[in-house]
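Why do we care about 3D structure at all? Because function follows from shape, and shape follows, mostly, from sequence. That is the central idea of this module. The next example makes it concrete: a single protein chain, its amino acid sequence, and then its structure expressed as tokens.
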Amino acid sequence: MSTTLVVDGANVVGSRPDGWWKDRAGAARRLHEGLLVADTSYDVIVLVLEGQAKGGVRPGRDGHLRTVHAKRDGDEAIVAEARAAVERGDRVTVVTADRFLQARVEGVGAMAMSPTWLLDQLD
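And the structure:
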């Protein structure tokens, strides 16, 4: 069984008051770089970006990390990515602090974890 980690980019970046709001694209790029080199147990990591953050990372695959640019809001893209991975038979974890989104992804069979959990692994 493969494992997939779906990351709510906006939510993870927004969980640290480090000035990300001054440079959303740069904050997304830093998160992407951290995920690229992170020593995780996941076979695939999907980073979902929305709005201005999309300017920091091109969409597509970079090794085990795939970046998705949400067409409108990130939540719909995150749920779609989680659902597709669950339907493939993957064990799926979604990283977000958004309680409504957590409930939605749990409803499609994924597990939800907090941004702090992920950031602790990246530090």
